[in-house]
Amino acid sequence: QVQLVESGGGLVQPGGSLRLTCTASGFTFSRYIRKWYRQVSGRERELVASITSPDGSKTYGEFVKGRFTISRARAGATVYLQMNSLQPEDTAVYYCSARQAYSSNDYWGQGTQVTISS
To answer: How far apart are CA 49 and CA 36, in angstroms?
Structure first.
């Protein structure tokens, strides 16, 4: 059973940075896609970034505009989201997910709150 745990959220001022970490236990997929989503209460969850294996290709939501970087370690068991130039509109709960290639089953973490405020 795959379990995901996010960490690294918190309160930062506009223009600041955070690095989110998502660690997966029981993660043994050699071909997979890992994603970060975010959700504001009352709104749909939106894709922030994704990274796939084995090619390492990355995609980002349009709103990212070069400010965020997704990366991986430990054969994809750990995924990071480096967020720079944060703005109040980036305030949300950030979730990570994991999916084995060719599967329709997503594993989710519990989320970590990111708040951007002065």
So the answer is: 5
Cis peptide before 14 (omega within 30 of 0): no
**Distance in Å from the first CA to the final CA of the chain:** 40
Q: Which two tokens mark 71?
A: 């990366």
Q: What number of CA atoms fall less than 13 Å from residue 84's CA on the CB side?
A: 6
In this structure, what token pair is assigned to residue 105?
A: 């089953």
SS3 labels along 24-39? EECCCCCCEEEEEEEE
Short-list 89, 88, 68, 61, CA closest to 20: 68
Q: pLDDT tens for residues 49-108? A: 999 998 899 999 999 999 999 999 888 889 999 999 999 999 999 999 999 988 999 999
Tens-digit pLDDT profile for residues 53-66: 988 999 999 999 99
